[in-house]
Specification:
By secondary structure, this protein is α+β, with helices and mostly antiparallel strands. It is 22% helix and 11% strand. The chain contains four helices and four strands. Strands 1-4 form a two-stranded antiparallel ribbon. A two-stranded antiparallel ribbon has the order 2-3. The protein starts with a strand and ends with a helix. The structure holds iron/sulfur cluster (2 copies). The site of one iron/sulfur cluster has 13 residues, from helix 1.
Length: 88
């Protein structure tokens, strides 16, 4: 699940532009604050990399934290399936 808090988002679209999986589109209409919100229309393509969440200057994005590889199993980095490859 990708949740974007409409009260926190200012529509900078950093999340849209950083997402390599092209998960977001931009709302066609502005909300009551005049913000064109990003919408996770292609959520199935999400890689759970967490980059959008980390980059958002207003902490307006929440992705499914259970899927963050760095948060899994007592913060055990070994959960990352690529960790052994990274370590060689
Ligand atoms: S990076 Fe954050 S503030 Fe900017 S558009 Fe995305 S959710 Fe909104
Ligand atoms: S977690 Fe990664 S892949 Fe998923 S929407 Fe954010 S930037 Fe895109």
């Amino acid at each position: 699940m990708i949740y974007i808090d409409p009260d926190l988002c200012k529509g900078c679209l950093l999340c849209v532009n950083t997402c390599n999986a092209h998960v977001f589109t931009v709302a066609k209409k502005a909300n009551k604050k005049g913000v064109f919100l990003p919408i996770p229309t292609n959520e199935n393509a999400c890689l759970n990399c967490g980059e959008c969440e980390l980059l958002c200057p207003d902490q307006a994005i929440l992705i499914d934290i259970e899927k963050h590889w760095w948060m899994k199993k007592d913060n055990n980095y070994a959960f990352n399936p690529n960790f052994s490859k990274i370590k060689g």
